[in-house]
Design a protein that fits this description.
Blueprint: E1 2-8, H1 11-17, H2 22-31, H3 38-43, H4 48-67, E2 70-75, E3 81-87, H5 91-99, H6 102-105, E4 114-118
Antiparallel strand pairs: 1-3, 1-4, 2-3
């Protein structure tokens, strides 16, 4: 079954991710199929602890994609909200994807999120 998860980033996360160049570096690395290194992110102004956690989170999402559980994930352009498209057996497994996200566990994703089954026609 396909589920879409709508979530909101905590304002503290949005403040870090909107630093100039951060999302460009992240998107380039992910398009290349890898996570960015911590050092270039800290050079762009991210605190080291946040950069390490963010890279851990990106690794987590890439592992889910490689396993076939995550079709897509990413923020909306304002970097305040995001969406995951999951292919999992049930809603409980979809919720678990967010709840096991290192960013969620660290409080960088708001605790309330929405999971909806999606009947993708195409």
């Amino acid at each position: 079954m396909t589920y879409v998860i709508f979530l909101s980033l905590a304002p503290s996360a949005t403040a870090q991710l909107t630093r100039p160049g951060v999302m460009d570096a992240v998107m380039k690395a992910l398009r290349d199929g890898r996570t960015p290194a911590v050092e270039p992110l800290t050079a762009l102004g991210l605190p080291g602890d946040f950069a390490r956690l963010f890279v851990e989170r990106l690794r987590y999402l890439l592992e889910l994609r490689e396993a076939g559980s995550l079709l897509a994930a990413g923020p909306f352009a304002d970097l305040k909200d995001g969406m995951y498209v999951c292919i999992v057996p049930d809603e409980r497994d979809a919720r678990r994807i967010v709840e096991e996200d290192p960013f969620y566990r660290a409080g960088h994703i708001e605790p309330v999120f929405t999971v909806r089954p999606w009947l993708a026609a195409l």
